[in-house]
Design a protein that fits this description.
This protein is of the alpha/beta class. It has 13 helices and 11 strands. Strand 1, helix 2 and strand 2 form a beta-alpha-beta unit. The radius of gyration is 22 Å and the shape is globular. Residues 326-330 have low confidence and may be disordered.
């Protein structure tokens, strides 16, 4: 009797496994059957928004359903990530954001999500960043700005698209080494940060490349870039490494889904977005922003984020960068 019971139990387990496999296969074959919502965690008009819209428009062709873009840049991007993390993990609610959203923001403030609440679909590009000032400011290079900040403590203000971003870290690295004080002014996205600089509301902006047209036209001046190598379009502008600062930034843009989204759906989304990332028009969009195409699949992106989280944590401790609650009190 006991042997028959074990056999019967084994048959039931086997049937359940087959049912799950068949269900997942069926789900992958039919998905998607309705529009997919993609929430960008930055304000409209910035490089993250531009890239998310561009790659989503190409991915639609391979998914057969429209991708509906919405924006929520509140909390430096944390609000959007908190919202999507709580959505039903059915493949119809995705988030598009930079790696800072998962590896830096949770280490700088209290948020409603954590790294483990997301399943990466892919990351599709590396975004260069730099520090710019208005050309009428008179500062020709980073040394000029640093010297001014040294003579005028706390008078220099700089905008970024959020606390804990690599652009914030870059400026804090400079301040620590030079023993100067300047004030960080975070905005809900790259576009409003750039607008603040153009309007004279802040002294400088440390952010991604939405400033390129203004630098090219002569309205803004690029003082330094934050990558490991100099930007192709600005070969005469030094990197932080060139200037002796032990820091370089690699910010990647990615698409992710809430934890629990079936692997079959993640695979189908990865395939669609990967094909979209190879589209010539999308690559042209990246080229205009001086972004570098860079692909990692779901598993590789997950590993990258986990390792980067640890690295950033060590940097926060090394430079004693305050959490947002402490920053606001300054």
């Amino acid at each position: 009797m006991r042997e028959k019971a074990w056999k019967r139990g084994g048959m039931i387990c086997g049937c359940l496994i087959c049912f799950v496999l068949i269900s997942n296969l069926s789900l992958a074959q039919t998905y998607p059957t309705r529009p997919i919502n993609v929430m960008v965690n930055k304000a409209p008009g910035g490089s993250m928004d531009i890239c998310a819209r561009a790659i989503s428009s190409k991915a639609e062709k391979f998914l057969g359903q429209p991708l509906i873009i919405s924006n929520n840049g509140a909390g430096g991007g944390a609000v959007a990530l908190g919202i999507v993390a709580k959505e039903k993990p059915d493949g119809y609610h995705l988030a598009a954001f930079s790696s800072s959203g998962l590896i830096r923001i949770p280490q700088f403030r209290t948020v409603t999500y954590k790294l483990e609440d997301y399943v990466p679909i892919l990351h599709f590009c590396v975004a260069p960043t730099g520090t710019v000032v208005r050309t009428d400011s008179g500062w020709k290079n980073m040394k000029d700005l640093v010297d001014f900040a040294r003579k005028n403590p706390k008078k220099v203000t700089y905008a970024t698209s959020g606390i804990g971003t690599p652009m914030h870290l870059a400026m804090e690295v400079i301040a620590k080494k030079e023993r100067i004080e300047w004030k960080h002014v975070p905005y809900p996205g790259e576009a409003p940060a750039l607008t603040a600089l153009l309007g004279g509301h802040v002294t400088a902006e440390s952010d991604s490349t939405a400033w390129i047209p203004h630098v090219t036209q002569g309205t803004l001046r690029l003082l330094v870039t934050h990558g490991e190598k100099r930007m192709k379009g600005f070969p005469d502008v030094p990197t932080l490494l060139d200037l002796g600062y032990n820091f370089f930034n690699e910010t990647v843009f990615l698409v992710a889904a809430p934890k629990g989204t079936p692997a079959s759906i993640i695979s189908k989304l990865n395939e669609a977005f990967h094909k979209a990332a190879e589209d010539p028009e999308f690559l042209q969009t990246l080229a205009k922003l001086e972004f570098e195409p860079s692909y990692r699949n779901s598993e590789a992106t997950k590993k990258y984020l986990e390792e980067a989280y640890v690295t950033v944590g060590k940097m926060i401790q090394e430079f004693k960068i305050p959490r947002e609650e402490e920053e606001v009190k300054k």
